[in-house]
Each structure stands twice: as structure tokens, then as C-alpha cells.
């Protein structure tokens, strides 16, 4: 039987999120028994990992099986949806829409589209077992050059996602909604926590923290200009940072993922999130917030010690993540999506 060939596109070649997606999907593709193809016209399946960047209409003319990943949350029913023109050009094409969350799939199913639930892939082994249990907090602080006297007995709140617009680093990226995090942190007792920032394009939140006196530490080199090439950390470093923080805070207004939720789950790191993307697919509903005040109160309780770290729920998130992402689960899920596509 001829092995089906898959052309995977959409990477950025800058060592950022989409490039990791390309690497993970390529590995899972081969593990699932499919051949990678470097030329689209020779492939059977065209798998694009970022739908809004897809513009290869020849794939439709050549009758390829086209699979587009909803890398950001698609909301065509919103009148101000910024990608509506792009969506309108593609929605009537013969496409299988790969939805990383149940929330996205339910929305697109209402349009009568062909959809498949396929969560974002992660390097599960790296996040689940990247550090021996004997590694101490002090050793991690030393590794990332964070002074112990800055941390002391404070709760470390993690945030490793970009928050600034690439075209204007002084403006917040509305999808990431960093101003919500700033508002919540501004009500916390300063001596009880430290916001640990990492990754590129954190200019907006760093400035807001300085302006409001919010205690924070940036793992990286502060620059006035774009720091994408300087402060993009290898995924191995991000995995270790998850082990350092006590809680990770997602305050996004719109997300396809975020992958941080998967990475926290695999790392057994407590994650709090707004109700975006795949949050409810992985986190207990008590840690997913639609109301900012409720989110802020819970975070306040954690920082002050009024609320204990819910270890049982962290373990529940880990077990759910393991079921979906530990080898060979990701390859099996991808193989099923490909097989279903070829059967159409």
C-alpha cells in the first residue's frame, strides 16, 4: 500500500512557537506512518499550522486534502473580528479545520464545517520530566541569575508569553491582555510576591510594572527595540522556569491555546486562566475565570496564604495532559485526523 505523503507548512523559521509546532507535527507525522513531502504538488495532504497565513490556492486546484490549524481563536460571528476578510475567503473551501480546543470546534461546527479536534502538540517528555525532583529552588535561581534576596519567601507568579505588539512595543497585544494581569497584581501585597517574566516582547508589562511599583524580575536582557532575536529562550529553559514558579497566570482575552496551559499541566505547575481557548479542556473549572474580580480574589488568596495550593487539581491536570500528549498519544491523534481526511 502506498504511503500517504504530507506537506507541512506555516513555520516562521525564527525559533518561535510555530517552528516548534512544525517540528512536533513532523515528528508525529512520521511516527504515525506518513511520509513528509517537501513539495506541495507531490503530497496527498497539505497541513498548514497557521490558518491565517495560508494562501496556497493551488492546493485546492490540485484537489489536495487541506487541513488548516486554528492557531488563533477564530470568531467570525464578531463584527470586529480582525481576520474576517481572510476567513471569508477560506470558509467555503474544502478544508478540514483543526481545532485545538473544544470551544473552537463547537463554534465552527455551527457553520457546518468539517472540523477535527486536535490539541496543540508539546514536547511532553521535556515538560513532564525535564528536572530531577532533587533540584532545588536555590539552584534554579542561580541558573537564571535571579538573586535570592529578590525572591526571599515570595510567591513566584510566572508569565512567559509576549504582551507587546511587534509593530509598536509600547502598546499591549490585546489578545494577551497584560493590563488585566497588571490590575490584579496591583492589589496584591508587594512583599508577598514576585512576577517572573521571560520571553521576548515584554516591553509593555515591564513598563507598567515599573510605573506601578509591582515587584518583578525579567529573565533576559532589557532592550528598547525588538528583542525577538535576543530574548527568545530555548524551550528547555522555559520548561525549567515552569518548575521554578509557584503559579502561572494566563490573562488572555483571545487564544487558540495558549500552549502555556499544556506546558503547565505537563510540568505539574498550578495554572490560573481566563476562559479562553483550551483552558477548560485541561484545567479544573475552578481555575478558569470569566470574571476578573473572581480571578483577582483567588490570586490574592494564594499570595496571602488564605488559599492553599490545590495539589490534587494540579495532579488532575497533569494526568489529563499525559493521556493526550505522552507518546504515542499525539502521533495516534494525528494519524486518525489524516486517515479521516483521506477517507473523505
Write up what this structure looks like:
It comes from Desulfomicrobium baculatum (strain DSM 4028 / VKM B-1378 / X). This is Glycosyl transferase group 1. The protein contains 16 helices and 12 strands. With 344 residues, the protein is α/β, with parallel strands linked by helices. The strands form 2 sheets. A 6-stranded parallel β-sheet has the order 2-1-3-4-5-6. Strands 9-8-7-10-11-12 form a 6-stranded parallel β-sheet, with helices on both faces. The mean pLDDT is 94. Strand 3, helix 2 (58-61) and strand 4 form a beta-alpha-beta unit. The chain starts with a strand and ends with a helix. It has 2 domains: 5-118 and 326-343, Rossmann fold (3-Layer(aba) Sandwich), CATH 3.40.50; 124-309, Rossmann fold.
Question: What is the H level of CATH, i.e. the homologous superfamily of the largest domain?
Answer: Glycogen Phosphorylase B
Q: How far is the N terminus from the C terminus?
A: 18 Å
CATH class category name of the largest domain? Alpha Beta
User: How many beta strands in the DSSP annotation?
Assistant: 12
**Percentage of residues in helical conformation:** 40-55%
What is the rounded Rg? 21 Å
How much β-strand is present in the residues?
5-15%
Query: Mean pLDDT score, rounded?
Result: 94
Largest sheet: 6 strands, parallel
Helix tally equals 16
Strand order of the largest sheet: 2-1-3-4-5-6
Q: Which outline best applies? A: globular
